[in-house]
């Protein structure tokens, strides 16, 4: 099966070929004989009831400094593509939401991964709230008195923007810290949305585990350990990646959310687990494929393409 695949992502020239999951997905698709096209989210156009993109043919190779070739720009009707990978990085803002609305016009005739309507309805931090038995004590509010009351109840808290990403603007406020009022003032100036406040989970010192689920099944994991003096474990802020397996509790979490992910067309998902708690469900542009592959020898991108190809085949046979 040879598929026409359009990848909606950030500029290909700046990706880290040893870490970027979109690059790994593109390379796996190319190795399977699929034809690739690349475009930026701003290249989407809705015209005459068709969703078009000013795209370029793409070839990739694992060669630092020479990892891609792009063809000349051409107008591509996304409805004649077999697959569109929606892989641009957050922030999950109105631009991101608009892209999901446009791609919803072509899905599922063209398989969009992940399902654009489900992506729109599943912001990472809000999606978790549908699984209250799995998440830590959490408050989402703009009200300062509510936030102060939550802090009084739990003492040690994490404060973060509701639609942030990559660990940006995540603060650990200890019981003796006097900066909460100033922090809330800053958040109010920068963000219009409510703030997410969670009880601090001390197990984060042992790591923030990223678990990859493919079509609702957990297939690999990576532990990210925060550096000294840092409460965030994100790799780009200095977190250390470690090989890790899954605990019984983590398998329980995956079993609880897996059917929902599968039913909503969320094929490639990365969840974050600290201690016994699910903290985020990443559906926009999950990462971790290459790191897990190096630790465990698992070709996760291949498993993702197995699912995609099977779904396209079923659609063709319908």
TrEMBL record:
Q: Identify the metabolic or biological route this protein is part of.
A: Sulfur metabolism; glutathione biosynthesis; glutathione from L-cysteine and L-glutamate: step 2/2
EC annotation from Swiss-Prot or TrEMBL: 6.3.2.3
Which reactions does this protein catalyse? gamma-L-glutamyl-L-cysteine + glycine + ATP = glutathione + ADP + phosphate + H(+)
Please state every residue range assigned to the domain named ATP-grasp. 125-309
One Pfam short name: GSH-S_N
Q: Which gene encodes it?
A: gshB
Per the UniProt record, the source organism is Limibacillus halophilus
Molecular function in Gene Ontology: ATP binding; glutathione synthase activity; metal ion binding
Q: Which cofactor does it need?
A: Mn(2+); Mg(2+)
Is GTP-binding one of the keywords?
no
Which InterPro entries does the entry mention?
ATP-grasp (IPR011761), ATP_grasp_subdomain_1 (IPR013815), Glut_synth_pro (IPR006284), GSHS_ATP-bd (IPR004218), GSHS_N (IPR004215), PreATP-grasp_dom_sf (IPR016185)
What is the designated name of this protein? Answer: Glutathione synthetase
């Amino acid at each position: 099966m040879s598929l026409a695949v359009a990848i909606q992502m950030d500029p290909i020239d700046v990706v880290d070929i040893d870490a970027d999951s979109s690059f790994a997905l593109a390379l796996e698709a190319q190795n399977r004989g699929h034809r690739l096209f690349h475009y930026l989210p701003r290249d989407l156009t809705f015209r005459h009831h068709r969703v078009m993109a000013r795209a370029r043919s793409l070839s990739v190779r694992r060669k630092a400094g020479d990892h891609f070739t792009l063809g000349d720009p051409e107008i591509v009707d996304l409805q004649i593509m077999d697959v569109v990978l929606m892989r641009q990085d957050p922030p999950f803002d109105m631009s991101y939401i608009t892209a999901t609305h446009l791609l919803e016009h072509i899905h599922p005739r063209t398989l969009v991964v992940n399902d654009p309507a489900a992506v729109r309805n599943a912001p990472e931090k809000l999606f978790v709230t549908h699984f209250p038995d799995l998440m830590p004590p959490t408050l989402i509010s703009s009200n300062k008195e509510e936030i102060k009351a939550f802090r009084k109840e739990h003492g040690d808290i994490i404060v973060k923007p509701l639609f942030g990403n990559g660990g940006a603007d995540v603060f650990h406020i200890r019981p003796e810290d006097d900066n909460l009022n100033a922090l809330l003032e800053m958040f109010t100036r920068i963000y219009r949305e409510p703030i997410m406040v969670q009880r601090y989970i001390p197990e984060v010192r042992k790591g923030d585990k990223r678990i990859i689920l493919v079509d609702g099944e957990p297939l690999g994991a990576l532990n990210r350990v925060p550096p000294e003096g840092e409460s965030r474990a994100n790799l780009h802020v200095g977190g250390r990646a470690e090989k890790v397996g899954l605990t019984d509790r983590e398998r329980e979490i995956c079993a609880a959310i897996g059917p929902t992910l599968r039913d909503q067309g969320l094929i490639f998902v990365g969840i974050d687990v600290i201690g016994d708690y699910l903290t985020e469900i990443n559906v926009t542009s999950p990462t971790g494929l290459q790191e897990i592959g190096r630790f465990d020898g698992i070709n996760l991108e291949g498993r993702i393409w197995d699912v995609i190809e099977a779904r396209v085949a079923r659609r063709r046979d319908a």
